[in-house]
Amino acid sequence: MSRPQEPQRPSFPFGNPFRNILPKGSYLSPRLLALVNKFEETLAERLRKLTPKDREDVLTLSWMRCAMESLCDIHADIKALITALELPVSVWDDKWIDVYLDNSVKLLDICIGFSAELSRLNQSHLFLRCVLHNFDSMPSDQFIRTRSSLDGWKQHITSKNLRTENCFTILDNLVATLDEPKVKNSSKGKVLMRAMYGVKVVTVFVCRIFAAAFSGSGTKLMDLQVPEKYLWAEAYTGLQAFVNVEVRNSCISGRVTALKELQAVDIIVKKMYPLVEDGTNSIESEEFKDCISDLRKSAAKFSDGVDILLKEVDGFFQILLSGRDALLCSLRAGSDVSIPMQMNNITEQVAR
């Protein structure tokens, strides 16, 4: 399905991008008002739960897993809202469809970039396994191999992933479309676009934190201003302020990585390297034995965390893909079946 391309409108990421949705004086039935309020209250609660209890929790793999789980839940919430609105694809405005399809492609690209980076980080664990294997039976000639493995690990985790860097460009493009599309004659459409704005803001925020964590750079973080009229605005603003400050501080500290579990491994490796260089003189020392024990625990925690987060990213990818496929199927069939019903069918097929 092709449509004539419209000139790109200027973007105002720090203004009020949703000022024409539900303006003053617009009427919503009690039912529609209840639906949009429930959605926004749920979104606010999810954001509050995502706010870390401690500053040290920011950029841990466990917190990032929770963030990705929240994104999956939020996208499930918008599917449930569409079902409740009883808004079939046949009455969707072409602009809504264009924006949705364009955004879904961008988010799929971001997921691919994140999965590639997590897979790359997982490969670094192979170097650590080689180190630990050499320590299990440590003849003097194994020190050379151990040093080589430690050097390989350092080079691997400090290398740059161009796909991660590209995520920032994609996210900037998503921010530039936050003010689209505007709705004039459909109360249900206004509710849908208002809810989708919230989903988009939170999705961009979480993905930008991920990109900063993987790239080790906080310079491209963005503090979006959300109008106070949204019931989730206060929770979002608080979460954004808290997390962005900690990410920026972590990224300017000169550490090799922003990920906390990876930082823990790096600290141990730095302690271990001079001991390995000393060779057999340090093999019986308590410090050496402590390093081995600490490395074994930290490496396992890091590897397990990456595996779990990778599964969550893949799950989010499947949610995006199933939603996009469902919409395209509905458009091709000219069906009046609402999007979420088909999404659920496709999701069930994927699960099988």
Automatic annotation (TrEMBL):
Keyword annotations of the record: Membrane, Transmembrane, Transmembrane helix
Membrane-topology descriptor: Single-pass membrane protein
One GO CC term, this protein: membrane
Cross-referenced InterPro entries: ROH1-like
Primary location class: membrane
Signal sequence annotation: none
Localization terms from the record: Membrane
UniProt superkingdom: Eukaryota
Classification via Pfam families: ROH1-like
Homology family: Belongs to the ROH1 family.
Protein name (database record): Protein BPS1, chloroplastic
Phylogenetic lineage: Eukaryota, Viridiplantae, Streptophyta, Embryophyta, Tracheophyta
